[in-house]
Amino acid sequence: MDWLTSLRGAIEYMEEHLLEPVTPEDIGKAVNISPFYLQKGFQIMTGYGLGEYIRCRRLYMAAMDLLAGDEKVIEIAYKYCYQTPESFAKAFSRFHGFPPSQVKRQRRRIKIFLPLKITITIQGGHNVDYKIEKMDSFKVIGFEEDIPMERGYELCPKMWDRLTKKYFSALWQGKTPETDLERAIVENGVGAFGVCVEGGGDTFAYMVGGAYKGGPVPEGMKVREIPAAAWAKFCSAGPMPEGMHSLYTQIFQEWLPGNREYDLAHPIDIEYYECIGDGMDYEIWLPVTEKGKG
């Protein structure tokens, strides 16, 4: 199943299950894609997270049902998978701008949210700068946090900012490491990688790390093993984090829909950073398998 077909299938699945509890794992299984890549790609392609899309569709359909006048608010709340009428009313008011009880008087203010239809024109997909490189397994060490999928572009840069102010800036300027943690940062080149790994549900684990060379793992840091794989490595340069976000968009909106050779493999991707003079070169690595061989 190709990338666009899978995304369209995900929308069809969500539309068919709006009245049931649905998880990213359910949707991913239905279209045979890792929930990690499905959530990341869906948000990049549509601007909505999976949970956000389901929530918006339910709240629009709930308004239509209330407008028809055949069901009570409490019935509509449970129908669209809210645990209490209060939580439904709060979500409804936040989405539409008025409470459910006023839907008939405020019918012109109902926020319309129809099913998405994904279409795309491939422009420049073959010009994406990438190479395929096979690598043995290796280990990374660094600082790791769980990040909500829908807030990755917001929270990952903030994590980098915190660590840069607390540790990296002084060490990169030549400060002599004084603690086990500072020595681990310097010895393992922590800050070279941003590692995204599938988490649970609607989160992913994000590590700011470096290539682990052995030795003690200080408190507050973690070691992960990256599996052996063939990696599609996409290269770019420019201001951060905008440049990295732009590269992700180019990969998911142009390369993946246009590529006929590779499927995504393990639910992990890696950002690689390298300072060149006063600028920054960076890469995104995606593990891939040749189509039909995964």
Number of helices: 9
* SS class: alpha+beta
Rg of Cα set: 22 Å
**What count of structural domains?**
2
Overall form: globular
Which regions have little confidence, pLDDT < 50, spanning 5+ residues? none
Tally of DSSP β-strands: 9
Strand content: 15-25%
Main sheet summary? 9 strands, antiparallel
| CATH level 1 class label of the largest domain | Alpha Beta
CATH topology of the largest domain, by name, is Multidrug-efflux Transporter 1 Regulator Bmrr, Chain A
Helix share bin: 40-55%
Relevant CATH superfamily of the largest domain: Regulatory factor, effector binding domain
| C-alpha termini separation | 12 Å
What CATH architecture label of the largest domain applies?
Answer: Alpha-Beta Barrel
What is the typical, i.e. mean, pLDDT?
91
Helix-strand string: HHHHHHEEHHEEEEHEEE
Please summarize what this structure is.
It contains 9 helices and 9 strands. The chain has 294 residues and is an alpha+beta fold.
Structure notes:
Keywords: DNA-binding, Transcription, Transcription regulation. GO terms for molecular function: DNA-binding transcription factor activity; sequence-specific DNA binding. This is AraC family transcriptional regulator. By secondary structure, the chain is α+β, with helices and mostly antiparallel strands. It has two domains: 107 residues, Arc Repressor Mutant, subunit A (Orthogonal Bundle); 166 residues, Multidrug-efflux Transporter 1 Regulator Bmrr, Chain A. 40% of the residues lie in helices and 24% in strands. It is built from nine helices and nine strands. Strands 1, 2, 3, 4, 5, 6, 7, 8 and 9 form a nine-stranded antiparallel beta sheet that branches. β8 and β9 form a beta hairpin. α1 crosses α2, α4 packs across α6 and α5 packs across α6. It is globular. The relative contact order is 0.13.
